[in-house]
Design goal:
alpha/beta, Alpha/beta knot, five-stranded mixed sheet, about 35% helix, rRNA_Methyltransferase, SpoU_subst-bd
Length: about 290
Amino acid sequence: MADDSRGEWHVTSGPQPLKRWEITSTKSARVAAVRRLHERKHRLSDGAFVVEGPSNVVAGLSDGHVDSIYVTKAFAESHPDILSLIEAAATGDKITELVTVSEDVLTVMSDTQQPQGVLAVCGLITQSLDEIAREGMWVVLDQANDPGNAGTIIRTAEACGATAVLFTEGSVDPHNGKCVRATAGALFRMPIVTGVTWEQVRNAASGRRIVATSGTGDCELGSAAAAEVLQHPVIWLFGTEAHGLPPLVLAQADVRIRIPMSGAVESLNLASAAAMCLWESCRSAADPQA
């Protein structure tokens, strides 16, 4: 928990007495302490990140990752249901602070141009590869650099029944504000691992086939050959929208699948391509005869 007199941030663990207070000055040290969490280096050093918007804050409360919550009076008055959830979390020792802030203060704390009235600081949610189950469908993002796409894929992965999302070294930080917002709360429910290497992915496959998307793939998504592969849990590999997967990474795949496209379209948005592939995995697993 941050000490407002110093402006530092330290996420606490275990039951703590709830502290309620108010911030009206944008020059408060606490405002600066929260604001600095929008930079990756400070998120890593402080072990915390910022969550904005009702759906993401509620998801964080349900998962128990929230340390402190900042709300405007207007939000509290217009969202009694969410305020009740916050009060319940406070009663259950799930959060340590409930801070009322002015609109100006929330604007400075926020990473968006139009804050939604509520913001939370949470402990980092990433896990190590040893902490997640080596089963089910995994999604691996190689050098993913667009936070919006990454967040959307995390959300889609949950919807399609994936058991983990992995980011290779050099990828965007999943705690990035835009990424967090794009997950719509899925960030708190989906096991996420960062900084993985391809050797680690291969060693953790546990019999699952590694499948990559490629314009020159072995078979087409939706074909009988692809469905036969996707009847079983696989590890999907996705590269950047601009360059796709590099040859060395494609060589790691057991199967390469291409997405059929019509017209003059040469490529798809990464999140769109991932959604098609993950849905097809979900469909093939649910109906092996499809």
